[in-house]
Design goal:
With 325 residues, the protein is an alpha/beta fold. It has 2 domains: 174 residues, 3-Layer(aba) Sandwich (Rossmann fold), CATH 3.40.50; 123 residues, Rossmann fold (3-Layer(aba) Sandwich). 26% of the residues lie in helices and 26% in strands. It contains 8 helices and 14 strands. A hairpin with a 4-residue loop joins strand 6 and strand 7. Helix 3 packs across helix 4. The longest helix has 17 residues. The protein is elongated, with a radius of gyration of 21 Å.
């Protein structure tokens, strides 16, 4: 079937990944504006739950049951099965989230189909016979606009680009048997490690309190964590902070970390370099505390408090605790 495809990623508990709901919303909106068909595909050992949820966003979802998806790296297996669904010599464009698994799927699909990849899309429109994709490059300093010259193309979509919205009508779920043998090497998963006590994903937080080099060290992050707890938010950090070992890499925000879109972003001791800005600039409200009035973050923050972080942060924490106490 020619048209647009959405790859549904599956979480560890079998549900649909949040980023896939955002990608589905974008692809459905694009298809409606262009008069194109759009379908979803979920490849998993048990795709039922994820496919059912994806059908609340798309008119049609193929649920491909593939036991190997539980035993091998998911992206390789999913790409193999998705490639088998595509029709030769027809215009088909695949949309997937720009997370670790999505990037792997895109690369594998490109190798299997010969289609190009437009990575980290920040916007997409339909022009002529295919999608036109905007991408942020050089740390957010430039925006490029690109399209496809081949019949098949893959687009990876940055998280938090759109707000997920279900479709007016629930779509159908079609159980689909995989065709043929898997062609990719049978790479075995020898061990899975789950981080104990992992915090809620910062990509999904409505409030993010982040610390940078100005925090001074791991001890300095205690007040960052306390303010985040008082606000009911998540803790984030700059690359300098995670490289120094003050906080886990899972909390890094920026060009080489996570992309967040909270209602409130509180930046403590963060200069606001372009590499960090690209990961948090779409926050609804940005509040910064920095002793340097000429710090780059002052140019785009909604409110800047010029002062010593170790005086301002404790005062802020005391005010928050007094309000809730």
């Amino acid at each position: 079937m020619a048209g647009l495809w959405v790859v549904g990623e599956v979480t560890a508990d079998g549900g649909l990944a949040r980023i896939s709901t955002e990608v589905a919303t974008l692809a459905r909106t694009l298809a409606e504006a262009a008069g194109q068909k759009v379908s979803g595909v979920v490849v998993a050992a048990d795709p039922t739950a994820a496919a059912t949820e994806l059908a609340t966003y798309l008119p049609r979802v193929l649920a491909v049951t593939e036991p190997a998806a539980a035993e091998r790296p998911w992206a390789m297996v999913a790409a193999d099965r998705i490639a088998g669904l595509l029709e030769p010599d027809t215009q088909e464009f695949i949309f997937v989230g720009a997370g670790p698994d999505g990037r792997d799927v895109a690369g594998a699909l490109s190798a299997l189909t010969g289609g190009g990849v437009l990575a980290n899309a920040t916007a997409a429109t339909w022009k002529d016979a295919g999608p036109t994709v905007e991408m942020s490059v050089f740390g957010g300093k430039l925006t490029t606009t690109s399209g496809f010259t081949a019949p098949t193309g893959i687009v990876t979509v940055r998280p938090n680009l759109v707000t997920a919205k279900t479709a007016p009508k629930v779509g159908s779920v079609e159980p689909t048997a995989p065709a043929g043998e898997l062609t990719q090497p049978a790479v075995a998963v020898l061990e899975r490690i789950t981080e104990a006590g992992a915090a809620a994903p910062i990509e999904e937080a409505k409030i993010v309190v982040a610390g940078g080099r100005g925090v001074g060290g791991a001890d300095g992050f205690r007040v960052v964590e306390e303010i985040a707890e008082a606000l009911g938010g998540a803790v984030g950090a700059t690359r300098a902070a995670v490289d120094a070992g003050w906080i886990p890499y899972a909390q890094q925000i920026g060009q080489t970390g996570k992309i967040v879109k909270p209602q409130l972003y509180l930046a403590l001791g963060i200069s606001g370099a372009i590499q960090h800005k690209v990961g948090m600039q779409t926050a609804d409200t940005i509040v910064a505390v920095n002793r340097d009035p000429d710090a780059p973050i002052a140019e785009f923050a909604d409110l800047v408090v010029i002062g010593d972080l170790f005086e301002v942060a404790p005062a802020l924490l005391a005010a928050l605790r007094a309000r809730t106490g």
